[in-house]
Amino acid sequence: MTALLLGLDTLLAVACAGLWLGAGVIAVTTGDSAGAARSRRTATWLAGAALAATAARILVVALLAGAGWWFVEDRLLLGLPLVVVPAVVAVAVAVPRLRHAGLAAVSESRVAALLLITGYGAAAALVDVFVLGYPVSAAGASTLVVVVAALAAQTLPIGRRWRAGVAGVAVLAVLGSVGAAWWSSRPADRLSMVDHSHHGGVSVASLRGPAGGAARQFTLTAQHARINSRDALTFDGTLPGPELRVTQGDTVEVTLRNKDIADGVTIHWHGYDVPNGEDGVAGLTQDAVPVGGAFTYRFVAKDAGTYWYHSHQRSHEQVPAGLYGSFVVTPRDPGPGLDLSVPVHTAGGTTLFGAVDGIGRRTVPAGTPVRLRLINTDDSPHRMVLQGTEFRLSALDGGDLHEPGPVSGKAIRVPAGGRADLTFPMPATPVWLTADGNNARGVALTADGATAAPPPAVGWPELDIMGYGTPAPTGMDAGHVDRAATLVLDRQVRFLDGLPRFAYTVNGSVFPRIPPIEVREGELLKLTVVNRGTDTHPMHPHGHHVLVLSRNGVRPSGSPLWLDTFDVRPGEVWEVALRADNPGLWMSHCHNLDHAANGMTLHLAYIGVSTPYTMGSATGNHPE
Ligand code: C2O
Ligand code: CU
What we know:
The two termini are 32 Å apart. With 624 residues, this protein is of the alpha+beta class. α3 (69-101) packs antiparallel against α4 (109-132) and α4 packs antiparallel against α5. The strands form seven sheets. Strands 10, 11, 13, 15, 16, 17 and 19 form a seven-stranded mixed sheet that branches. It is 27% helix and 31% strand. It is built from eight helices and 33 strands. Copper (II) ion (CU) binds at residues 504, 535, 537, 590, 592, 595, 600.
């Protein structure tokens, strides 16, 4: 509903601008010759339509206000007044004249000027929608008002000097604010994610895993390879990279080597709450590993579950290009059965399920317990469909759900970066896993080796995780939070590295200038995430799982949801709680990596933690 209202509001804002400007321009240019009657009629009709559109927009904004102040602040304080104030004056002046002069009133100079001024206000309201947004800044708002005032002055019967004066002020205001925005966005050669008042304290370089006694050792070599006749960036020459499978409690040691990837690489353990120095973010927790270099990650695999790893250097290029793999931690005694990780990855228009381009077939004896660990390594959500059996959604983002009930006929939505474990006993008949209604790719399990094709599965409803499973204690008292922060996500015109972009913003800012969320160790942080835009944003805080408190004001009625990647869809408001129990500097971003690279990246910074690493062109570190 909120998403619909947001869309409608944008349409009405565009309509208002077009109609008021149209009415104004026609009215102003219509003379009083007899032949001008048609133009007058057109202008009057346009003005009427503009009034109707304005009234509709007021209604939509009023309805939007019900979803939260974040959705309407700028519209109420800036966008609507810019139109409504001149419109009211225009109507007040025009109505008595209409009685006497009829339609000719519209082309009378005062009325015409007011219509045009309303048009300027309506056009400025569009600037509010696409450029200013939430929160309203005094500088932005006053610049806009000055511009409208200057345009209005050009139509009013005032002295030339006055006109020139206000126009000058407006030009200076625009140049000043655009210039300042551009100046502060210039790419830095070397940028630290921690402000200087925080230097000293604990360095991320000391927040490392255990020094020795590794039970499981791996080496991953980042290298170019040609796969399915395409160039790929890979770990060990395979797509996906090797699955790393360890047992809960193991100390894991992974040495990353870079054979030939000129930009450098790192490994981030997505969803795994490793010590900060093992988090693999170039320029924040380490330097990108250059060609010929190496970096060794060590941590204790304390949580069982489904995770994945990927490069966090130029991740919006390197992850799609192939630098990813599954990371599975099995419980100490997993029991027999088929336990399969299925990283889903889209590149060059095809979607791989694991390493398979097409349908991957397996023969599984009937009665075998099966666990499919679905991993979405892409930028957009996948609707995963399991056909041929009832199943349980046993885990999300690595964490077991409480008393998951049987599911059938429902799609499982896996956010970008998220994971879902589906479990079921293998039936005697075939089972198919596919995604997004595409039956040409996926996984087919059969008890007898037959090769039947999956039936079509379009239009399946999604399982709503907010009401799935049963409640259980969380050990978190959400009534007692130490800190709260709000992230309002949107899409706006911003300078990024000195260039104008239609960027992805958080509270109106873009990376690297979004202020970090600061916490102290031990605190309980409540995060409110609001999506004002039209894109889905899979938000991913590193180093922590968050407990979902509510979505659009509704608390989960089923299993507690501990997630590391949660999809905030257009118009949604999520409240989540995060226990600050893992000190460090943690990147937090949208896992649509393209959005992350276009602004939607910030940090969770523990007070007292600093980093010796820097990012920017002089450093070779580009985490996003
Ligand atoms: Cu999988 Cu910072 O991300
Ligand atoms: Cu996003």
